[in-house]
Amino acid sequence: MSNLINAVERALDVLLYINRVDGPVGVSQISKDLGMHKSTVFRTLATLESRRFVMQDPESGKYSLGVSLFSMSKKIGFYDVFKPFAQQLGQEFNEAVNVSVLERTPEGVYRSTIVVKEDSKANVLSVSPKVGTSMDCYCSSVGKCLLAFARDVDVQALEKYPFTRFTGKTIASPQELVEELGRVREAGYAMDDEEQEVGLTCVGVPIFNSEGHVVAAISISGPTPRIRSWDPDVLARRLREVAAEITTLL
Known about the structure:
The structure is a single chain. The chain is α+β, with helices and mostly antiparallel strands. The protein folds into two domains: 6-73, Arc Repressor Mutant, subunit A; 78-247, Beta-Lactamase (2-Layer Sandwich). Helix content is 39%, strand content 20%. The strands form two sheets. The protein has a six-stranded antiparallel beta sheet with strand order 5-4-3-8-7-6. Strand 3 (96-104) and strand 4 (110-118) form a beta hairpin. The two termini are 26 Å apart.
């Protein structure tokens, strides 16, 4: 894109790289891994250090993230990281986009709770839950993703679901849910195929942090004919691309 500024791009690449690596890193390693000349890396780091975006260890000469980034991060809520990505997908597909996290009630029931929501401006859904709404995981794409990829899920707790039959397609037993979660893990995405409401379909994928632990799930929802006009694999692939971008920020 012609509007991009190369020096700014390089600085951002260096910051994202330092954030990904384990511990302080030197100029030579950054130069090698990013394919930049050492002199360019050095000047970029010197500029970032002058604004306290990175700091240099006086003994090792290696760099780590600086206090300016920490100060900025305190003003950004964890869930705010998801917002621009949800907006991007909403504009791209003109459908509703939700980001949800996994919670467990005092009774031991797993539920997915919406933390970010982007409604379609042109296409209004008959079911449009608000931020903070929680729902049973067995009948939502995000809920299935969260259960399928979360660590240490108590399988016996899945028996606590009422398995209310909202439609003829709703999962009706713990065994069906366990089998469905296996399919989700294999496919890498989940669907709510008119399982909460006839005429409503959702596709969702998990969002992982830098340690590979699932922290949330993101979905596209809309009337079945519109969602089905896309190949679910194509929608899932786009969602996974966005989820991977989010991972670099977590």
